[in-house]
């Protein structure tokens, strides 16, 4: 795979599929086809480095955060933002979902 222009900080598989998600210091989150190494769709952009990454169990949403102090939720199929969550005073290097996808912990 090539495409990110800076360090990759996180990587996660999309459940049940041959795709994975990466986040990077180039301010993007990207979806990749594991079989051919090609990027799928468009890059999901942040205002700063993206260091934290999580995927819901159903594989329909990506959560990402980093230097911008906002947690973003993305639709996997459209690669469009669903919502943005504030409340952090600094960067978001870690994100975890509860087993039922009802709660998110970040910091």
Any idea what the radius of gyration is? 13 Å
Query: pLDDT below 50 for ≥5 consecutive residues: which ranges?
Result: none
Overall mean pLDDT stands at 91
Strand arrangement, largest sheet?
A: 1-2-3-4
How is the biggest beta sheet arranged?
Answer: 4 strands, antiparallel
Sum up the overall morphology in one term.
globular
Alpha-carbon distance between the two ends: 29 Å
SSE-based structural type? mainly beta
Question: SSE order, as H and E?
Answer: EEEEEEEEEE
**Helical element count?**
0
**Helix content bin:** under 10%
**How many runs of DSSP E, i.e. beta strands?**
10
Strand content: over 45%
Keywords:
single chain; 107 residues; mainly beta; 4-stranded antiparallel beta sheet; globular
Task: Describe the model.
By secondary structure, the protein is an all-beta fold. Helices cover 0% and strands 50% of the residues. The chain has no helices and ten strands. It has strands spanning 8-13, 19-24, 28-33, 39-45, 50-55, 61-66, 71-75, 81-85, 95-97, 104-106. A four-stranded antiparallel sheet has the order 1-2-3-4, with no helix packed on it. A four-stranded antiparallel sheet has the order 5-6-7-8, with no helix packed on it. A two-stranded antiparallel sheet has the order 9-10. The mean pLDDT is 91.
